Amino acid sequence: QVQLVESGGGLVQAGGSLRLSCAASGHTFSAYIMAWFRQAPGKEREFVARISKAAIITSYADSVKGRFAISRDNSKNTMDLQMNSLKPEDTAVYFCAATTRGDRQVADYAYWGQGTQVTVSS
Prior knowledge:
Shape: globular
Number of helices: 0
Radius of gyration: 13 Å
Mean pLDDT: 97
Helix content: under 10%
Largest sheet: 7 strands, mixed
Order of helices and strands: EEEEEEEEEEE
Strand content: over 45%
Oligomer: single chain
Structural class: mainly beta
Number of strands: 11
């Protein structure tokens, strides 16, 4: 199993930037595909970005493509999400997630962090 803890959320004005981090422990980090999801009030949890085990392949939701960047450091057991040009519609609780195999579906991911709140004011 792997334990995940997010950090870095907060309040930012529209157009600003935030960097989220996810720290992993408990198992070989490089064995997992990692992803970020988010959930806004009253909405379903949705995919944001995904990074392969060796950080070779990344993918993004259309809504964040060109603004967000996912990265990972397997030597430090961490994954980051750099969020630029933030919009009010990016407001949500952001979760990091891990899986040994899967793509963009919530059900693909067995391990989740507790989430970190991101609020973008207009």
